[in-house]
Amino acid sequence: GTGMGLPAAVRDRVAAAHRGSTLPERLRLYDSWAARYEQDVAALEYRAPHLAAASLAFAYPAPREEARLLDVACGTGLVAWELHRRGFRCLHGVDGSAGMLERARSTGLYQELRLCILGREPLPAPAEHYDAVTVVGALGEGQVPSTVMPELLRVTKPGGFLCLTTRSNPSNLRYKAELEAALGRLEQSGAWQKLLAQEVEYWERATSEEESTQGTGYISGVVYIYQKCPVPPLEEG
């Protein structure tokens, strides 16, 4: 039983999104996927938006209504629903897919939505603008490169929070190692401190036996929460 009980079409669309491809191909894929995306991730039992929002809400100390959040690679707005449920009201989103943004706009949950291909161009925001930044589900092989961390930090206020997720399935392990090295270097330099790195066993359903954790039919993932240090790191040299 490959595909672990997922409909073949869903399995193919999810696998295609995780496969390395050229940027134009990937954006076309997401544009055409937008209409079916939420049904597909429901079939996947994709828990990252819920887990990320719960973790950020737990770490976030102040009243949430006033907090300004940037949801990077916001897709159709799954993360916004979860944040909104937890009292976050001022949400901005960016995504590389116009089709996904159109769906996100129709939720009415975002104050502002902008097209932005992270890794290719800077975020459309001034420095130290956001109380929290989330990147849920997009940090993976063939998606957002791990080199974007300084750009995420740039738009975060000193003392602000960053909530990131990645998958721990076999085909993403090389990326995960690169990501964790990048996260660690920034911590070493004093740019931010790690508040949480939580491994979650049942992240989403696996699209193949090879990806599944010990035959459970699921893959695992991680939620990271970092806090940007209030004092800027010392410039070297």
UniProtKB/TrEMBL annotation:
Pfam families: Methyltransf_25 (PF13649). InterPro entries: Methyltransf_25, SAM-dependent_MTases_sf. Residues 70-160 form the Methyltransferase domain. It comes from the Eukaryota. PANTHER family: METHYLTRANSFERASE, METHYLTRANSFERASE-LIKE PROTEIN 27. This is MET27 protein. It comes from Helopsaltes ochotensis (Middendorff's grasshopper-warbler). The gene is Mettl27.
